[in-house]
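Suppose you are handed only these lines of text.
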Amino acid sequence: MRISGRTRTYGILGYPVGHSLSPVMQNAAFAQMKFDAAYLPFEVRPEDLRAALDGVRALGIAGVNVTIPHKEAVLAYLDDVDPEAAAIGAVNTVVNRDGRLIGYNTDGAGFLAALKSEARFVPKKRNVLILGAGGAARGIAHTVASAGAASLVIANRTVSHADLLAQGLSHHFPYLKVRTCELNPAAMEPHLASAHLVIQTTSLGMKPTDPSPIPSKMFRKDHVVCDIVYTKETPLLKAARSRGAKVSGGLGMLVHQGAAAIFLWTGRRPNMNVVKLAVAAGIRAKSARKR
Ligand code: ATR
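From them, the structure of the protein bound to 2'-monophosphoadenosine-5'-diphosphate can be written out as follows.
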């Protein structure tokens, strides 16, 4: 990377941010596109978020990604928010348009793009089972509802959290059938029987000792199963794959949401294979450092 007086600056705001793969991913994308830009990690404490955004304006940083724990709080400090991001209540991408900061959420677009390219699946008129009811589940549920899903079941350890998410969804999508259940195989079985798409959004599966929340015998060949965990294939995806189901891991979603951010910033799309290879190398380097 060559830095000159004309190099555009981008970055990611998070706390902590040291684990983030976005700098590796986005710099690889800029390099592949031959776009004169640099992407840096910025560790921003929650109490400094407002000042950091003023800094983005003052320094003329062209755009930033926003990650945990700032995705929701950042809305208060932006000049405008895209309607989809406002509905989800979370922003992961900020575009600096001549000093005005506009917030977007590319997680949903990234999810749909990964689902299409890796499993050749679109959720329109399909039944969807979502595991989890946190921030990631909220974004994905809005996305599949906007994409025209026929029904949605939210399975969660704490059913009251799922009920709250279901209420919000019913408000935005009055014609969508939304139900909730406990996150255990017996409660999920009838919903799985009619589901076309299963999406795992909790942190379950990050540890290799985590059991699959759905036993393999409950999967069918015509299920499509996604997991947002991207570090490795989770026990859930292994169980689904062993029954011939189509699976899609979190890596595809990660690279597609990053590419969607780059599109908002530059109007251009990077070559996804190059970006994916760079991120996979970043994951391998990270796990080698841990050993
Ligand atoms: P994120 O923004 O990544 O979605 P979050 O908002 O903290 O994170 O949500 C975490 C989700 O993972 C929740 O659905 C949580 O279930 P609860 O609502 O019952 O807390 C779920 N989760 C976290 N750890 C879990 C575990 N060990 N078993 C089952 N579900 C778990």
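What can we learn from it? The mean pLDDT is 95. The first helix runs from residue 22 to 33.
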